[in-house]
Design goal:
The protein has one domain. About 15% of the residues lie in helices and about 35% in strands. It contains 1 helix and 5 strands.
């Protein structure tokens, strides 16, 4: 399963924990293969498909943060996600 709108692009998005994510609902095996290229020593749980929303970070430490939301929430986008 490939998400045509969002190409597979794994990013580290955790500040003090190991979290990786790519926009789009991607094949979980392909996602983890891409993760392991750059983060092979990270002990991550099995990846999941989530829905996220980007919101401003009011703490001043980050520009924005990601919040998990229900599908169909205004401003939500699909994500493939794995964490420690």
């Amino acid at each position: 399963m490939s998400d045509q709108k969002y190409p597979l692009n794994v990013e580290s998005v955790g500040s003090d924990t190991y979290i990786v994510m790519s926009r789009g609902h991607h094949d979980l095996g392909e996602f983890m293969a891409a993760v392991n290229k750059d983060y092979e020593d990270w002990k991550l749980r099995d990846p999941e498909h989530k829905w996220c929303k980007t919101v401003p970070d009011r703490s001043g430490q980050l520009n924005c943060r990601y919040v998990f939301v229900e599908p169909g929430t205004r401003g939500a986008w699909p994500a493939t996600y794995a964490w420690e």
